[in-house]
Amino acid sequence: MPSAPAPSGSPRPDSGSPDSWWPRAWWARAWWARAWWERAAIYQLYVRSFADGDGDGIGDLAGVRAHLPYLAALGIDAIWFNPWYPSPMADAGYDIADYRSIDPVFGTLADADALIAEAHAHGIRIIIDVVPNHGSDRHPWFAAALAAGPGSAERSRFWFRPGRGADGSQPPNNWQSIFGGPAWTRVTEADGSPGEWYLHLFTPEQPDFNWGSPDVRHEFEDVLRFWFGRGVDGIRIDSAALLCKDAALPDVASTEPPGPAHPYSDRDEVHEVYQSWRAIADEYSTGKHGTGGLGDRMLIGEVWLPDAARLARYVGPGELHTVFNFPYLDCPWDAAGLRRVIDETLALNAPLGVPATWVLSNHDVDRVVSRYGRADTAFSLERRPYFHSLPVDLALGTRRARAAALLTMALPGSVYIYQGEELGLWEVQDIPDELRQDPIWTRTGGADPGRDGSRVPLPWSGTEPPFGFSPASASAEPWLPQPKDWRDLTVAAEAATPDSMLRLYREALRVRRAEPAFAGTPLTWCEAPEGVLAFDRLAEGGEGPGADGPEESGHDADGIDVNEAAATVRCVANLSAVSVPLPPHAGILLASGPLDDGLLPPDTTAWLYATR
Ligand code: NOJ
To answer: Which of 209, 239, 264, 362 to mutate to test the pocket of ligand 1 (most atoms within 8 A of CB)?
Structure first.
């Protein structure tokens, strides 16, 4: 057993190269026997807000490239990039004008190629965002559709329809935009007359593609090949359940659940699309198109569906590799609720042979520190104004976010970390109205504050904004203002502070990768007091090193005892209001906060070596 517990946030080798610290013991081979995405730690990188290389106040690929060593040292396996394509930015890049290039504000295609190669050299995979439900009103196809007029082949790639009423002045149906207001906008025809309407489930600048059109299907298959061919390792599919529409475009009742009877959400036809995409991903995984990239390609769907059985239809051998786990993200900081979501997630995934994903935050939701610092710790997109009306206790939220990080990283499957989560950034709720940029804010007339508060540029160093986000020579301020109080949350400050969130994340990711238990079987729940979650993770093979007769002995490069390393790891998370005794254990690997003489304080998680 280890002679001393690894202190939370203990220093780790800062090398940019994972080779120097990857586990070399026998059990490392079990890790690599699986596809990389099955238990990867994936960093969600919101390019606009990560790091500004050229000083225009907006993050870019040069900024990312300069900070790849930071990401390598953090210990992640892959980066998911939010959209980086040419875009008028009506919805922060989710309105794409060209799916095969890079927006000039972010860089060039050559920069992307270099970034992919450099990330691969660090052992980091690249996942990009593809947005198939809608494009941009500046996409050449949309311009062509406007020019070609009603009934044209060009218009059939979108949803153009005459309006209702004698003069066609009413939208074709009652569908509402997810961002507020009607889902239809009327165009002016080439002759200046009021013309047809087109469908946009999001903003008017994001016209929906018609997935009944063969052109659309071929185009996106080609886009996938374009990026896989450049070495991209995975695709995150935006709004993945919305692509297919009932061509009759009937009115929808607000009570109609997503599913085959819904005119645009979770229709059965959508699965044909992903089956064809899976076949393409598999071609690249098996090297049919050469050896570009690091091997297996993966598809992850952004699928928000309330019905677990319907969600399950998206994943499996012939379809998507994984989907995001939004119920986990939405769940309050509550032991019974989280246990239910964890059980439901694992029950859903296990029969399909698909690994679970675990997500605490992303660019669409409030940051986790703020969520967990409120009296109501749940979250839902629809109720954001209510959540923003609640006071936030940042110290409490931070303590819980630390505990949640260790809980999440101990779960079997892959974990997504949204940039800034590793610094403990909070939701910036006091952005001046005139600086807000999210279309949700404008389209709801300010009723919904939108998502800008989770997208504020990262603080890297220094004691004043822009906190190293932009170079000293910058010509512009960061595109959203950073709170002055983030001076204690910069990367530089946290790297120098032993009990910082950053040091906790680095250490947790290192242990998660190094411990065979975390590469092993699904979890086993243990008895625990009310409000406490306790589960074991057991190394593959179950019996520890004796089963496979490892020749190695002593300690590996991480200082982890290779004989102990195959032991069961128990994760204990105390979500109750009182301290509880730690269960009997043979050692403490990591804790999210100080332990109290054998007690686990409230809102604290510990990783223990279980006693046998
Ligand atoms: C989901 C994305 O996560 C969100 O940011 C975007 O606004 C919508 N899809 C529309 O593309």
So the answer is: 239
Compute the 3-state secondary structure of the chain and give helix, strand, coil in percent, each to the nearest 5.
30, 15, 55
The verdict on whether 238 is a catalytic residue reads yes
522 φ, ψ (degrees, to nearest 5): -60, 175
Question: pLDDT tens digit string along 503-561?
Answer: 999 999 999 999 999 988 899 999 999 999 999 999 876 543 333 333 333 444 444 44
Q: Please state, in angstroms and rounded to a whole number, the distance separating the CA atoms of residues 498 and 594.
A: 12
Q: Could you report the per-residue pLDDT of 267-309, keeping only the tens digit for each?
A: 999 999 999 999 999 999 988 887 666 789 999 999 999 888 8
Q: Which residues contact 442 (CB under 8 A, 6 or more apart)?
A: 436
Of the residues 283, 330, 393, 556, only one is catalytic, namely 283
User: What's the 181 CA to ligand 1 centre distance in angstroms?
Assistant: 16
Tell how far CA 239 is from the center of its chain: 13
Report the distance separating Cα 205 and Cα 91, nearest Å: 8
Alpha carbon of 416 to ligand 1 centroid (Å):
17
User: What is the rounded distance in angstroms from the CA atom of residue 331 to the CA atom of residue 317?
Assistant: 28
Distance CA 610, CA 612 (A): 6
Is 269 an annotated catalytic residue? no
Name the pLDDT band for 33 (thresholds 50, 70, 90): low
Q: Indicate whether 589 pLDDT > 70.
A: yes
Q: Which helix (H) or strand (E) holds 116?
A: helix 109-121
Both tokens assigned to 201 = 């489930």
Residues in contact with 384: Cβ distance below 8 Å, sequence separation at least 6, in sequence order = 366, 448, 449, 450
Distance from residue 239's CA to the centre of ligand 1 (Å): 7
CA distances from 102 to 93, 106, 202, 222 (A): 10, 7, 22, 17
User: What is d(CA 193, CA 425) in angstroms, rounded to the nearest whole number?
Assistant: 51
Binding pocket residue ranges, ligand 1, CB within 6 Å? 91, 94, 131, 202, 238-239, 302, 363-364
Closest CA to 92 of 402, 480, 357: 480
For residue 475, CA distances in Å to 56, 66, 299, 452 come to 6, 19, 39, 22
Residue 249 has pLDDT above 80, yes or no: yes
Catalytic-role residue among 54, 129, 238, 438? 238
